[in-house]
User: Fold these one by one.
Assistant:
Number 1:
Amino acid sequence: MGVSYKINVEKEKKEILNRYRTLLRNTKDKLSNSDKQTIRKAFNLALEAHKDDRRKSGEPFIYHPIEVGIIVAKEIGLGVNAITCALLHDVVEDTNVTLDEINDFFGEKICKIIDGLTKISDVFDKDVSVQAENFRKMLITISDDIRVILIKLADRLHNMRTLSSMPHDKQVKVASETMYLYAPLAHRLGLYNIKTELEDLSLKYTKPEGYRNIATQLSETKDERIKYINRFVNPIRKKLKEQNFKFTIKGRPKSIYSIHKKINKQGIDFEEVFDKFAVRIVVNSTVAMEKADCWKVYSIITDIYNPNPDRLRDWISTPRANGYESLHTTVMGPNGRWVEVQIRTERMDEIAEKGLAAHWKYKENNKIDSKLDEWINRIRDLLAQPEHDALDFVDNFKLNLYPDEIFVFTPKGDLKTLPINATPLDFAFEIHTEVGASCLGAKVNGKLVPLSYKLKSGDQVDVLTSKKQTPKEDWLNFVVTAKAKSKIKNALNEKKKFIAEEGKAILQRKFRHLKIKFNNQMLNELSSFLKIKDSLEMLYQTGLGEIDNKHLREFATARTGGIYGYLRSKFYYTPPKVEKTYIQQVNKSEKKYLVFGKNEERLEFNLARCCNPIQGDKVFGFVTVDRGIKVHRVDCPNALRLQSNFDYRIVEAKWVRKGRTDYKAILKIKGIDKLGLINDLTQVVSDALNINIQGINISGEDGIFEGDLVVVVKNKTHLNTLIQKIMTIEGIQSVNRIYKT
């Protein structure tokens, strides 16, 4: 039964017109008559195409493309062509308008962008994430026009702003996907405001309780925060005026997501987050004086407040890979509170706000343009790789979105940007594929280091090569860049194919001797008989000499003997494809304490080891290919990836009764080391609460201890009682549940 809406047609017409006028007011430049006609033509086409369409909220659908256009114009700062595409971005996918018509009305350039934005529907196997294919298709257009990605981010931002009208499962799916891909992408393109809002909105739907708690506490402390910021900036403002600087000062709270991340990472409470807000000083300066002026402001601030030397970040001398420039320092403010201060010029601030769009405006800064070109070329290389699996592609793409960077140097002093934890091997592949493939070793700052050595900012790396060296499989265990991973995989696959060809020739000879036909069916039967995943792997192992005459004689005997049918049924079996409806029913003798789906069915399941859910945790089910349902906590480290890429295999899960008494939970305990601590701990756990301890590992240094406690509990309430009891032990500072050791 559909939802009925009370529609006020005249009111909606006025609202549509008001939003359209807002769009025109927010264009970055004064529009020519020709530009106005183009935007008006796009608006009229979208209005007509979507005239009968409504969003889940009941609003006219046309609100959405207009709002996307406003984001594109106001928050990203793009021009008339991008605004036109924003208005039209859904017409080909959702209406009868065709790409040919778009091409006729608006030209080839706009048609290509619309094509990149148009989703793919129902043409891929259900085991492949359609969204991953959409994402790949969108990125392919990066070779032609990067505005496709910018418009897509605007589209995603408006969808996130209006996500409240969607069903809960859809909210979690879209929010997870946004956190997994789109927020890192916005960061990589320098769109910090959009990135921050996407992260906060994603958190609102994936972890609503944590989001609400922080939002409430930020709201309750707002007045006090404003007073403190004013007290902090007043002496700075006075000094800057004395030095004749033209400037603005902005104080803002840290994002809810960043506070939530810090609370969870450090195992602290909201009150213990010392830098909940940042002060930004934006200086009016010429390009020639930018660097000097920013350092002068830094000097003035640190004359007033003591800086934390470990918290200085100079992204002016060495901008981030996405072009971000700023000086960041953390200083000790009044009442012993740390305050982060960001210092930048108006040009730097616009780049930080609008990312790529602002870069085009400041093209004279070649240092920034070259970094962006370098990144875009890296994406083009990734798209050119012979990688057919869309999900592998998305995972590789994510490696190119690294938020934390290090800066290392070649022997000649050239600067290279790499992700944190990069190794000399990543560096070698960054120089050139052939350098990476033939990398034998490396010297860092003149000293020989292993290829798995983790580089640090400022390191100078000299790669040692050999013509005899080839990529090794274990290299994949420590390289972190997408380029290195894909090049190593390609080299290994080529080597594997070459050896497999040799294996094929060997098998042909041996099959002839055993009087067995050599064809694809026989190869499949042999690989099934040997329990090898596919015939290519079997040919590869034959080429390596791992499949010998004994194996082949056994196969020949089995084929001709009476047990052949038995062997076929036992080994030559392909499990059914997993569809959304394929879930194995639970045995009636199993304990029934979890139900799945809207109909609350009782199904077979296992608890995921990656997050160790216990009764009372918020959980979801994930349908595996061959092991029934795996139950994960909603805050599992793998939850975002699963919900983003495999939403069709996610099922709702709910605890309905107490059934098990053997849930494993791991606690991270920190505090002040003292005599008898272990005894106090075991007394509380084992004696007072009668809880079984599976493992305990505590180490201390300089009067501080940290350790893991593995316990068996009945449910979450039982665990929370234990945590509260442990917190009463003298010297214990924090107790936090972790996923696994």
Note: Residues 482-514 form the longest helix (33 residues).
Number 2:
Amino acid sequence: MIEVEKLSFNYPGEVPALRDLCVSIHQGERVAIIGPNGSGKSTFARCLNGLLLPSSGTVTIDNHSTTDPATIYDIRRRLSLVFQNPDDQLVSTTVESEIAFGLENLGVAQPEMVEQVEATIANFHLERYRHSPPHLLSGGEKQRLAIAACVALQPRYLVLDEPTALLDPVGRREILALLQGLHAQGVTPIHITQDPNEAVLADRVLVMNNGNVVMDGSPAAIFAQWSQLEPIGLGAPFPVSLAAALAARGVDLDLPNYPSMEDIECSLAALSSRTSGASGDSVKEVAQAETLTAQTPKLSLRDLNFSYETPSGAAAEALVEVNVDIGAKSAVAVIGPSGSGKTTLAQHLNGLLRPNRGHISLDGRDIWSFKDQSLVRSQVGLVFQFPELQLFAETLEEDVSFGPRNMGCDEPMTKRHVREALDLVGLPVDRYGSRSPLSLSGGERRRAAIAGVLAMQPQVLVLDEPTAGLDPHSALVLVNILTHLRESGRTLVLISHDMDLVAQLATHVVVMRDGGIVLSGSARDVMADRDFERLSSLEAPSSVSLMRELQRRGCSVPVDLISQDEVVAYFAARHGDPEEKD
């Protein structure tokens, strides 16, 4: 078992990350750890295998102390850790050698090693990437490889820090199914996640806040106490949050404290059947239909093609005949399965990559006709998938100042832009300006990276997986920031696997697959399209799936409600408390 006694850990010059934490995890348990950004989850994970040593207290794995140099090798054979950012643990030149790396270090015999590598490649569907360098993989593919390399070691305990944050729904289901299979084989998975729908699959949920475990129990026991989770910035599974929102609007469904999706569907179906003449073929009763006005595009992509060179010298097509217009002041979501070309497309928008063929126009002018590419990048800002990749200065104020200074802003103007940008993202310079960017939590780093781009006053902001790894409160803060930016005239391009986020924020959606565009249009038209799942290999928003199920049960309800707010508004208008309706 894993035993943690009064564990405390302090980063140099920072507030304590862990405070007298006590917990025991028995072999065979399925454990999920949830908590707001900055609560100490990742620090705790690194303490479990001795990457970080306690400032005080003890951590023992099967009676082996992490502070004993003689046992640390044995601890790491028993407990494998998958980092939040896969780039932090990928070291080899090919996918195949990456999986073999750990086995070689364990001294596994060659025949057994080959067999284990082959089985792992097959289980994680990495055959096509066998000889590819890991750095050329997409973010989701890198995450899958990092997990595969750890699983190949056949550990007794497997600690995973946000392992599905960058994966598409197919990849997420595969990883979750794999964890269930590993558990059946005797592995103890310890899954750090921000997704409550993943946490409910565990036997036990630990809730962390301010460096300690504040709740510990079964998923049903934890999420039934929704009122205690919300104040610390955590979310609940869709059925629980929907039930709470409906109850707040006076819609009484007589549900248990911890309702399942089946409970919600049955109750809403019964409620809908009692309403005569209720029609719901269109969402116009709830939300004003989107108007797609013809306008001059802010960005226009025509016949865009791009290929990466493989180690063998052959060309691997990443973009194929991409044509899309991005209207001014719109919020366009680019979605699709891992490896579909989304990040490659994003890196073309401000000239980080140059197409093999085709054109990209900014306000009607080809971006490669600018003599100074910095002019393009000052207008089209890019926030990377991993924000720490663009944070490099010793202090946050210095980091955010870098862009404006490079653009030739004088010092007073630079300071003004920096202060405005940091205020906008909720990291005021007086409080955060002197801190190291790398000392910030995951959510704070994401906002810091956005501030560094906003300080250059771009007209277009491109964000690659902006909410990956963020707790619900941090994600909501970011959504509010992005909504404000669009309302103030900025154009947003979002890359995301979070369909509920896309439904909430995007005005238009572009679906990519195998480097091309397979579906595009208004967010509502695309996400409520009957062929959405088939064409995108993604899952429709939870609200769309719910309304489709109600219609399948014979209810006359609209099928193009794409957000929880719209679902709540629809049922509250028909079945809610009259005072709540007003």
Note: The CA atoms of residues 47 and 53 lie 6 Å apart.
